[in-house]
Amino acid sequence: MDFNEQALTNRLSGRYIGSGIRFFNEVESTNDVAFNLALHGAPEGTIVIADLQTKGRGRMKRVWQSPPRCNLYTSIVLRPLTDPASTSQIPLMTGVAAADALSRYCPRDVTLKWPNDVQIRGKKVCGILAEMKTAKDPRGNFVIVGIGVNINIRKKNFDESFREIATSLKEETGRDISRLDFAVEFFDNFEKWYRTWLKMGFEPVREAWLAYASMVGRQVQVVFQGDVRTGEVHGIDESGAMLLEDENGIIKKIMAGDATLVRH
Ligand code: BTN
What we know:
Helix content: 25-40%
Low-confidence stretches: none
Bound molecules: biotin
Order of helices and strands: HEHEEHEEEEHHHEEEEE
């Protein structure tokens, strides 16, 4: 089945997320396109999808490998009328939606690694990059949530530095996966979790996130801008920060960084 604007429009008809769809053969970054559309008034639920990104961006100014016609690169425009502080919960909510969608293909093998990497059997399959704009008038606030999912990329085509730590749905299932079917599954789950979050707040999201979490109760090392912290993970708080118990039994909030398990 072709993966294009018409096919997505047909399959997402009547949905809130996907009420506007912009499909591109090539962009620098879907997050940049969505950001510009939002600046010009694009409504909540607009999605931008591209077949290829030439400047796909990851967290911490990293490159997101975005080869043509094999993966999902998408960004969603959100305009939640919630307290701007709670927008830090959106990437975690998105991680839960992606984990639910991926679990349809690899049941029981999907985990979430703080802050919002989605993994299959311990290898990264999906990354999330949220960017926000605050305006004087809060009705002008918006959040762009960008999602990259490795769908049919082969192991040999990952950059060498990712080859052992990243994976794709095709590598994990051994078959070609329809990008259209996966995208619809993901957007449906995203809409469900976004509505839940708006209506009920972070608690149901946190519970679902913790059920997928691979690090709770384990010793980890968190590195952020040269600062290294180690401790046992206790969970996440309402801002999405990691709660880390240090060797003195003091629980610290870790707002950002890269976490790895410490093996003894
Ligand atoms: C990460 O794990 O570092 C986040 C990766 C986010 C990648 C997606 S792909 C679609 C959107 N456009 C971008 O340039 N980045 C995000």
